[in-house]
């Protein structure tokens, strides 16, 4: 996926305040000519209530071809998990995140596996993709800048 094209074509959706967030990593040394080299779109898919448990989701994670092999995906995913742990701690949300991955996308499957995501098998609603899940421990936020800062 080309992060630049995705961000350019992103249509803003109306969602409750603070529910969906996108983390961007930008690279460039010429003012106004920075490139988006990676992004991760994530948020609350289902709110936690007294009646049911909620769930977070990671909708997209992508890096530009020019930064492949730099472990930017690891940096993005690590930062998102820090934010989800903090959000679950602050708002008493269920500490569970899901994502959907094409099992033929080995780099993506490997990335999520490295972070402890479990492959739950085919998504019943979209059998070409697998659901991956991660249960985590809520924790007050760490240093966001320290977990996201990367230079390319």
CATH class: Alpha Beta
Low-confidence stretches: 10-18, 145-152
Query: Biggest β-sheet: count, sense, barrel?
Result: 6 strands, mixed
Q: With helices defined by DSSP (H or I, 4 residues minimum), what is the helix count? A: 4
Could you say what the CATH topology is called? Aminopeptidase
**Would you identify the CATH architecture?**
3-Layer(aba) Sandwich
Tell me the distance between the termini. Answer: 19 Å
Q: How many discrete domains? A: 1
Structure classification = alpha+beta
Strand content: 25-35%
- Overall pLDDT: 78
User: Which series of helices and strands comes N to C?
Assistant: HEEEHEHEEH
The share of residues in helices is 25-40%
**Shape summary:** globular
Rg estimate, integer Å: 16 Å
The total of beta strands comes to 6
| CATH homolog superfamily | Gcn5-related N-acetyltransferase (GNAT)
- Placed side by side, the strands forming the largest sheet appear as 1-2-3-4-6-5
What does this entry show, briefly?
Residues 30-117 form the N-acetyltransferase domain. This protein is α+β, with helices and mostly antiparallel strands and 152 residues long. The protein has four helices and six strands.
């Amino acid at each position: 996926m080309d992060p630049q094209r995705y961000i350019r074509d992103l249509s803003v959706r109306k969602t409750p305040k603070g529910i969906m967030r996108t983390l961007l990593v930008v690279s460039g040394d010429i003012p106004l000519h920075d490139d988006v080299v990676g992004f991760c779109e994530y948020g609350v898919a289902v709110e936690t209530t007294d009646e049911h448990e909620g769930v977070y989701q990671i909708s997209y994670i992508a890096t530009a071809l020019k930064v492949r092999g730099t472990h930017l995906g690891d940096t993005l995913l690590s930062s998102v998990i820090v934010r989800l742990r903090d959000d679950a701690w602050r708002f008493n949300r269920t500490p569970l995140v899901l994502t959907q991955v094409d099992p033929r996308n080995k780099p993506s499957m490997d990335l999520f596996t490295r972070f402890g995501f479990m492959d739950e098998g085919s998504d019943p609603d979209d059998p070409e993709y697998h659901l991956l899940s991660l249960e985590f421990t809520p924790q007050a936020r760490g240093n966001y800048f320290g977990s996201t800062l990367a230079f390319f």
